[in-house]
């Protein structure tokens, strides 16, 4: 069984980032993902409606909103990670470990160049 149909690539990325960073401001999440605040609001609205994220006030800034994962999100995130690992193994099948490392280095360099 796959992931829920409402869990598009960008929405999954939101969940994975929140999983990585913990309670995070929506504005920081939007910046991390390179989307506008209004787009992030749409993603969070959908994920909150599916009971995967919840909003809460930022105790350090009344104007900001934090998001955090709900307990219902955790098994979905684990399942997504397993699916992504399996897909990566299929893609990289037959490619040496050294070639994989080189590719990762090049991709990391591209990412760093993008954030400059």
Automatic annotation (TrEMBL):
<dbReference type="Pfam" id="PF01047">
    <property type="entry name" value="MarR"/>
</dbReference>
<keyword id="KW-0238">DNA-binding</keyword>
<protein>
    <submittedName>
        <fullName>MarR family transcriptional regulator</fullName>
    </submittedName>
</protein>
<dbReference type="InterPro" id="IPR039422">
    <property type="entry name" value="MarR/SlyA-like"/>
</dbReference>
<dbReference type="InterPro" id="IPR036390">
    <property type="entry name" value="WH_DNA-bd_sf"/>
</dbReference>
<dbReference type="InterPro" id="IPR036388">
    <property type="entry name" value="WH-like_DNA-bd_sf"/>
</dbReference>
<dbReference type="InterPro" id="IPR000835">
    <property type="entry name" value="HTH_MarR-typ"/>
</dbReference>
<feature type="domain" description="HTH marR-type">
    <location>
        <begin position="1"/>
        <end position="112"/>
    </location>
</feature>
């Amino acid at each position: 069984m796959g992931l829920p149909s409402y869990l598009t690539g960008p929405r999954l990325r939101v969940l994975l980032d929140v999983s990585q960073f913990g309670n995070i401001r929506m504005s920081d999440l939007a910046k991390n993902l390179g989307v506008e605040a209004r787009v992030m609001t749409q993603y969070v609205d959908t994920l909150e409606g599916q009971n995967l994220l919840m909003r809460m006030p930022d105790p350090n800034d009344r104007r900001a909103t934090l998001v955090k994962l709900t307990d219902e999100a955790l098994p979905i995130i684990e399942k997504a990670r397993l699916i992504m690992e399996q897909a990566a193994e299929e893609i990289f099948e037959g490619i040496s470990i050294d070639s994989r490392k080189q590719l990762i280095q090049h991709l990391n360099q591209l990412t760093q160049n993008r954030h400059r």
